[in-house]
Amino acid sequence: MPEFDFDFSDLAPIISVLNQTEGLSGTIYEILEKLGISPPEFLEPNKIAYFAKNDTSDKTYRVKTGELGMEDFQQITAWDGKPTLSFWPNIVDNDPNELDQYCNMINGTDGSMYGPGVTKDDILYIYDSMLCRSMHLTYEKDLEFHGLPVMRFIPPEDMLENPEINNDNLCYCSPDRSNCLGAGFLNMAPCAAGAPVIMSTPHFYQGDQDELDKLIGLNPIKERHETILDVEPRTGVTMRAAKRIQVNVPLRQYGNLPSFKNVPEVIFPILFVNESVELSKEDIELVMKGVYLPFTIVDAVCGVFIAIGGVLLISAAVKFFRIKN
Predict the structure, then answer these.
(1) Within its chain, how far is the Cα of 35 from the centroid?
(2) What is the pLDDT of residues 159-191, one digit of tens each?
(3) I want to staple 107 with a disulfide (CB 3.0 to 4.6 A). Which of 134, 214, 323, 324 is the partner?
(4) What mean pLDDT is predicted for residues 79-105?
(5) Which residues of 87-110 are buried (b: 16+ CB within 10 A; e: fewer)?
């Protein structure tokens, strides 16, 4: 772990306030201890890392194959060997020893594929292990992707709504209800070893307006900062996707550090990530030829036979009434 030297006490004769920095040298863990601040778990020696992980590998997943019904195809039933999560406490009933069943549920797929026959009325669920929660997306509009009809699904505003407005989100408040964040924010401390990390949409898109007004330079744009899934409805395969999230840290006055004396309380953006993927034009052509075109031909042939059958029925009816008369 790197060491730092914040001891400027030798300059105290010039700036008296620097007396308070005497002895503030060593690792961040040691400096916080000298300030009388209990360091969070993720800052313990040899444990500091992004989200307290030293690699990018995910845990194991157990998913349904669709054998008992294609409506459950690719649905995740367990992550890391467990059918539910264990990050989010029961804030609603004020019992931190009990886990909230709603927030700890594992729902959906990884977002790459769903059961065939997706409709506009469907709600598509995704489990995101990086965010330690399940999310849902709803239909927005029909599009064409390289000539292939797709349906665009996006997260509805209620999914990341202010917990005091959408009470389903109360269990994401940490450590208690008095610490609930505004719309668009998720405190990652419970699943990041206590790290002071807050996830949000990029540029606080659809986020809390008060937090947006505290910062200069943010410009939320739907087309650039919204998470999307473009799904081919016949197969349920995602043709284009973009997961857009932003990493932030809460800034406030920390202990007796002089450098933070005048720091305002604000959620400060660090970076945002756009994880995008789309099928190539060549792959789309294979889907068109192997899946979409046969269905189109079958529909056309069925339509022709239905039309012929209708003409024959009408002709038969006409002849019947003529003979009867």
Answers:
(1) 36
(2) 989 999 998 888 888 888 888 899 999 999 888
(3) 134
(4) 77
(5) bbbbbbeeeeeebbeebbbbebbe
- CA nearest neighbour of 244 among 278, 195, 187, 200: 200
More confident call, 94 vs 311: 311
Position 73, amino acid: F
How many Å apart are CA 116 and CA 233, to the nearest integer? 7
Highest mean pLDDT among 39-53, 64-78, 172-186, 227-241: 227-241
Amino acid at 218: L
Tokens of 32: 């916080």
